[in-house]
Write a structure and sequence with these properties.
The protein is an alpha/beta fold. The protein has 2 domains: 177 residues, Rossmann fold (3-Layer(aba) Sandwich), CATH 3.40.50.970; 124 residues, Rossmann fold (3-Layer(aba) Sandwich). Helix content is 36%, strand content 18%. The chain contains 12 helices and 14 strands. The strands form 3 sheets. The chain has a 7-stranded mixed beta sheet, with helices on both faces.
Length: 327
């Protein structure tokens, strides 16, 4: 069912429902917004399109064959023809089958043709560790896309962010790689439809002076847990949720680091070559403050719980890293 948000005191809704609401609003406002992908007609595998085909019809919420290259290629063509497609890849791991269309077509068209063609496409690529889903369904690849000129990269962590940032992505006019975490779909929160969040603007989740902690997506929520534990010890950490990986909020991060003199960047992705290195290097060059990264080891995510746990960055590990930096 599509949500009814006429209640003046809305109840919390899920991360997935917030996405449905955002798409519903944009499709109602702009007839050029369409959805295409596998299983979108029945609501998507996470319920992130629930009720939309019934409301807008099968010509705007389009079920496709199982071919990521064809889906992404069709989305690029639709965008160049004037539509605003939402291209559903199910999970970021499957998007690898459509990388040529993302890297060589969507990202480069505006530059190569002098702005004559634009690709206002939102590619939804759920990322991160998916419980008990093993190495081919649990990757965090945001750094790949941050390295790609011509695309915007977004990683929302809350229902409010998923609503506001998905609407901003659909209005941006450029290709957006939109990475929702695979295990956040049931996360609850109140969504204020009047809140607009520009792409590239971070959120200060917690103010503090002892150290700057930067993260995004689900890992930002675990960092909040670490901050709670540290606060009980009298350690006030400033937590910044980037929300957008590219462009990222240099000003917010640099201002905080200039105040605290210490930076810890935490991400679920493999630490080697992760986007945390870009943030750490930028901050070190600009402020000279002490920097450290905390990411996953360079191993595939295991299926067995004990192996999967080796790839996770726990709240305890974050708190321990903060304490070590304050010695």
């Amino acid at each position: 069912m599509v949500l009814n948000t006429d209640d003046p005191t809305p109840a919390p809704i899920s991360y997935a429902q917030a996405a449905v609401l955002a798409v519903q609003r944009e499709m109602a406002l702009d007839a050029n917004v369409v959805v295409l992908g596998e299983d979108v007609g029945r609501g998507g595998i996470f319920g992130q399109y629930a009720g939309l085909q019934q409301r807008f019809g099968a010509q705007r919420v389009i079920d496709t064959p199982i071919s990521e290259a064809a889906i992404m290629g069709a989305g690029v063509g639709m965008a160049l023809a004037g539509l605003r497609p939402i291209v559903e890849m199910r999970v970021v791991d499957f998007a690898l089958c459509g990388m040529d269309e993302i890297v060589n077509q969507a990202a480069k068209n505006r530059f190569m043709f002098g702005g004559q063609g634009r690709v206002p496409l939102v590619a939804r690529l759920p990322g991160g560790i998916w419980d008990a889903s093993a190495a081919q369904h649990s990757q965090s690849l945001e750094a790949w896309f941050a390295h790609l000129p011509g695309v915007v990269v977004v990683c929302p962590s809350t229902p409010q962010d998923n609503y506001s940032l998905l609407r901003a992505a659909l209005q941006s006019g450029d290709p957006v790689i939109y990475i929702e975490h695979k295990t956040l779909w049931g996360a609850q929160g109140v969504v204020d439809e009047s809140v607009q969040i520009p792409l590239g603007k971070a959120a200060i989740r917690r103010a503090g002076n002892a150290l700057t902690l930067v993260s995004w997506s689900r890992q930002a929520l675990l960092c909040e847990q670490a901050c709670d534990a540290l606060a009980a010890e009298g350690i006030d950490v400033e937590l910044i949720d980037l929300r957008s990986i590219w462009p990222w909020d240099h000003e917010q991060v640099l201002t905080s680091c200039a105040k605290t003199g210490k930076l810890l960047v935490v991400h679920e992705a493999v630490q080697a070559g992760g986007f945390g290195a870009e943030i750490a290097a930028t901050v070190a060059e600009a402020t000279g403050c002490r920097v450290k990264r905390l990411g996953a080891p360079r191993i595939p995510v295991g299926y067995a719980p004990v192996l999967e746990a080796e790839s996770r960055i726990s709240a305890d590990a974050v708190a321990a890293a903060v304490r070590a930096m304050l010695l």
